[in-house]
Amino acid sequence: MQTPRSEGPAQAGRALGVLLGASNLTLALPAAVREGLRRLDASPRTLVVAHGPGRSYGIDAGVVGFRFAGLSACRLAEQIDEIRAEDDGCTGWALLTDVGNDILYGCSVEEILGWVDGIAASLLERSLAVGITALPLESIRALRPLKFAVLRRALFPFRPMSKDEVLRRAGEIQSGLEEIARSRAARLLPVRREWYGADPIHLLRGRRDEALRLWLDGIAPAGGSPEEGEADDARGRSAAPSRGLRRRTLRPVAWRWAGLRFAGGPKRLALDARTEIIAL
Q1: pLDDT tens for residues 59-102?
Q2: I want to staple 68 with a disulfide (CB 3.0 to 4.6 A). Which of 42, 52, 120, 251 is the partner?
Q3: What is the pTM of this model?
Q4: Which range marks the domain in which residue 258 is found?
């Protein structure tokens, strides 16, 4: 059973989009926001975003000195319930990406799939169309062992794991995601080999827009007129420049380098009178 897809007519209540991920979402966030806004054709509209380099689906984790709450523990359901309480006509979609990070944190396949399944079930219970991106198995498989070892040490220096073990776990997770998509009426969204270069897990800069467009088309085809789409593109570019948007929507719970801890919690950013981003 496939999730019903919107054909583009204006929605009756608040339009809601959810973007969950780790470093790929952080790097592609400006494109994700632009593409997301084009698919929220009601007024008002809200994008809920939870991202961060090295962010996990279930444990406190991160890179570059920051730690982020696991995506399963960032109070996403509570935030959506608050939005729906303000507008009971709220409808929308959710995109889950960067599922494979937790492999190199040493989390078991069962744990990872349990976190993703729990989030997907919660979102579907709240009437959101859910899409989960597949793992880039082909690009990982094509990586030579020496290059894999170098990248693994650079990205996850304290998590020794062989390429064969990563591929085995990634294959099991991929099979599990396929089962979640079937059983939950979610959509498993494809990845393409040409989207990745020497780094097998991060989208090439020139391919981020294409990837986000394809993924979001799978759960929420763009509606509205071409003029409205161009206006949303301009709004996404001008209201929050790339670095500023990434920085302003990061919600770390701790900064290891300075020994600081943060309360975290949602942060609201108004892009205009009818558009807001809530960062978790």
Answers
A1: 999 887 788 899 999 999 999 999 999 887 788 999 999 999 89
A2: 52
A3: 0.87
A4: 15-279
